[in-house]
Amino acid sequence: MIGDRSLRLPASGGFMEKETDISCKYFAHMVFFQLLDLSDPAVDAFLDYCVRYLSGHDGQVHFSLGLRAVNIHRDVSDSSFDVAMHIVFKNRGKYDDYAASQQHADFITDTAGMSTGRRVSDSYIERAVVGLP
C-alpha cells in the first residue's frame, strides 16, 4: 500500500488462480490499434467510433483513449500503434458481456478498413493506486 491513495483489491491466492477466485477482480482490457489513415479527420472519426460503441457499457469503471506519444524515442517504447484504448471492468463477467454486445460487434463492422492491425492485452488488476472506485 502506498499512502491513503491505494485501493485494496481482493486478496490474491497466487499467480495461477481458479476462475472462481478471479471473478471478483477488476479486469483490464487494453487494445492498441494501427490506423490506415493518420490524417486528423480519420483519427478523430476512429476515436469517435470508439467512444460511441465501446464506452458506457455496464460494469466499466474506466474508459480512455490515447494517441501514441510520437516524441518518445526510448529503446523500450513500443511504436507499433497509433491509438491506445484502456478499459477497466468491475470483473471478467462484465468484460465478457461487453465483448458479446451488439455495440462491440457494430464497432468491428463500422471500423473495418480503418485499422491495419490491433494488439490486445488483457489482465486482472492486482494493485491499483488511484483512479478506480
In short:
With 133 residues, the protein is α+β, with helices and mostly antiparallel strands. The chain has four helices and four strands.
Number of strands: 4
Low-confidence stretches: 1-18
Q: Mean pLDDT, nearest integer?
A: 85
Estimated structural class: alpha+beta
Strand content: 25-35%
Major sheet, described briefly?
4 strands, antiparallel
Strand order of the largest sheet: 2-3-1-4
What general form does the structure show?
globular
Total helical elements: 4
N-C termini distance = 16 Å
The value of Rg in angstroms is: 16 Å
Series of secondary-structure elements, N-terminal to C-terminal:
HEHEEHHE
Helix content: 25-40%
Describe this structure in words.
The chain is α+β, with helices and mostly antiparallel strands. Helices cover 27% and strands 26% of the residues. The chain contains four helices and four strands, in the order αβαββααβ. The chain has helices spanning 19-22, 40-54, 92-99, 102-110, and strands at residues 27-35, 60-67, 83-89, 115-124. Strands 2-3-1-4 form a four-stranded antiparallel beta sheet. α2 (40-54) runs antiparallel to α4 (102-110). The protein is globular. The two termini are 16 Å apart.
